[in-house]
Amino acid sequence: MADLSYFPLIVVVLVVSCLILAWWLRDSTRQRSWTEGRATAIFDAAVDGIITIDENGCVETFNKAAEKIFGYLSREVVGQNIKVLMPEPYRAEHDGYLAAYKATGRAKIIGIGREVTGRRKDGSTFPMELAVGDSRRDGRRLYAGIVRDITERRRIEESLRQSEERFRLIVDNVRDYAITLLDTEGRIVSWNDGAQRLYQWTAEEAVGRGSESLYPDDMRGEAADSLRIVRDCGRYEGEGWRVRRDGSRFWAHSVITPLWDDQGKMRGFVRVSKDISDRRQAELALRAAKEEAESANLAKSKFLAAASHDLRQPVQALVFFTSALESRLSDGQGAPLLGEMRGSLDALNGLLGALLDVSRLDAGVIVPDEGNLALGPVLERLAAEVAPQIGEKKLRLRVVGCSAVIRTDAVLFGRMIQNLLSNAVKYTERGGILLGCRRRRGRLSVEVWDTGIGIPADRQEDIFEEFTQIGNSERDRSQGLGLGLAIVRRLSGLLDCPVSVTSIPGKGSKFAMLMPLVGFNQSRNITVLASAAGWRHGVKPVVLIIDDEVSVLKSLAFGITDWGYEVLSASGEDEALAVLAERAVPPDLIVADYRLRAGRTGAEAIRQIRRIFQRPIPSVIITGDTAPERIREAQQHGLNVLHKPVLPATLKAAIAAAVRS
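Request: output the structure for the sequence above.
Response:
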């Protein structure tokens, strides 16, 4: 009988072994459960669909992303054949493919990945990326597939493809523009039909060339310069010479812009060019014609400006001869003819003066000499000059007192006011004219009001153009040429004093000039000087006339004599001094032409006579020279200046005022 003394020990060992085995099995199960839970969490958190199938193609797992992609719940798919997620013909072919793989080990998808078509629960299909791997577990073959819905990517790719196709068709069919793509080094990488037509290189010949080959040899540096401008500024646009394959040149307009990729990195340049040689030739021809016309106009203006004295002289003589004849033939049969002659001469006088003034302004020979100007006395003098014409039309003239001091050129400003007053008289048949000023936004508005015919709103800019007149469709030359306001506009630009007009047709107009305001003084301008006046005591004032033109000298003598003055005549300074040497007293007034013989001037003659008699003899300068510097020279010596051709009434009023002073 066997020894049973070891039996208790064996039982203990067996019990302990069983306990250890039970503990191990329980721990292994717990570890496996934890691992499977972690795998499930990762499995469901994946953004791509993950599906596992067994070797017969039945679905074992189906994660959350797969549910979203295919529209099935996991419980609806697990246990089903994977074919349920495939459209035809893939569904019918799948089992055969799986069997062939198990038999031969030759894979078409497994371990490779490809784009296939999936089928959703609703029957719709979609493109997807599929990657499949296989493994063995517990002796079984398992397959895991990762799927991604690429519908949106396909849509974007198709849209981009269509866009690129449209762009290619557009570029290739544009024949008037050379459209080329350059790489970052400036080499040509694309060349459309328009580029081939323009530069005469085929695409095969052009691609790979540097863009400098499109420039003449002496301008090749411009290629790199233009690309540098694009890098620095984001765009280049310019014109210049380009060269064809045969070496001929053409003038091109080019635009170059950068080409960026999706990451914002510059990949090259887009260059668009067009041959504009014909347009440039037309522009050059137009520019040459314009310069020629401007040159001719300037030459004309300079001629008229330089010849103004000689042109005015014969007209001046005619004016005073006519005036003298009128006083002698007032009752004869020739009086009506003389009246007509005088009207024609007055019109000619005004037209010639206006044309010469415009010519001087256009010639650019007038330079403003600005200074402080007390406005009141100036308005008073200008009103006095227009008083004879206002009297003839039986109009009223009011000058509003003004103590303002402005900054301007006294001579040019005076001419502007003269033209505005003359315009007001011309177009006013009843009522009156107002001359005055008021403050406007820190400047002084000098204004001329009238009760004339007015100006329609749509013509208020036209009136400042040359030869434009309102209410003179018959072109009555007694109304002038329509240059007065054109001169005002030119002078306003020269003096930087804007001119505006406000008008109501049938009621009247207001012209305003905004002048720089310096301040105010205590002088007031509230009266209008009278024109001519009679002489008391029966003594005739003595007027000395100096003019080197015999016809003008005689015509002035006739006219001034008829106005009741004793006249002394001289053709120059020496002859005037000789005439005066025979008299014991100086003349009451000197009337002299500015330009005399031997380079002498009437102003110099007057100064010499004043020195000899040691008194400031009142004097009037008559001149055809409208240069502002001449006028300033005369004014500095207390000389009144009248421009040829001067009207007899104007000269008569000036002589009367000078003698009274």
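The radius of gyration is 53 Å.
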